[in-house]
Design a protein that fits this description.
Length: 202
């Protein structure tokens, strides 16, 4: 992927989404090209989180590097799965909101709207800022999703609010499942809880 174009896409999506979404909707794309964008941004966000938990630490606790690396890999893979599943969901829901079914456009919608959350996650390199950044990134992601739907899925603007709300509800459920799976696979949650209790004298 052309990194100059990737950076330009990130800038345009974040700063001028209303003019960028028509460009996104009209350009040719494949599942591979869209997920490559996701891998790069989600990967960078994951590296920032890894550094934050391993090097900087939270409440004096630093996650063991082995667990952190495993968590990074599992989270990245599950993020890609979640993006693809949500792309299918966005496409499947389109007719219910007077839009057009199209998995590629649905995938574009989810991946490019997620740009805000992934960029915000870069601040996780300092865990104390991570939560604040995550909230800000989530709010902007929802706004990006809302502004995308009339262009990518051809739904009437007046139906974007309901369309967005349903997508978010489904995303929350799937994201919780993905997070639970990641925690079970890596044991990250148990390791952090045990270490934090020890650091607090529990």
């Amino acid at each position: 992927m052309d990194f100059a174009k990737l950076l330009q896409r990130v800038k345009n999506i974040l700063l001028s989404p209303k003019s960028e979404w028509p460009v996104v909707a009209a350009e040719p794309a494949s599942v591979q090209s869209i997920l490559t964008y996701a891998v790069i941004l989600a990967g960078l966000a994951g590296v920032a989180t890894l550094i934050g938990f391993v090097v900087v630490g939270v409440f004096g606790f630093r996650l063991p590097i082995g667990i952190a690396l495993l968590n990074f890999v599992v989270q990245l893979l599950l993020t890609l799965v979640l993006c693809y599943l949500m792309g299918m969901v966005v496409s499947a829901l389109a007719p219910s909101f007077s839009g057009e079914k199209n998995v590629i456009q649905g995938l574009k919608t989810i991946v490019y709207a997620s740009t805000a959350s992934w960029v915000a996650a870069l601040l996780s390199v300092i865990p104390a800022l991570g939560l604040i950044a995550a909230i800000a990134g989530l709010i902007w992601t929802i706004f990006l999703l809302y502004t995308a739907l009339p262009h990518t899925m051809k739904s009437p603007p007046e139906r974007s609010g309901g369309y967005t709300a349903v997508i978010i509800i489904i995303y929350i459920v799937l994201a919780w499942i993905v997070g639970w799976i990641a925690g079970m696979v890596t044991g990250t949650s148990a390791a952090m809880q045990s270490a934090m209790q020890s650091s607090l004298g529990g």
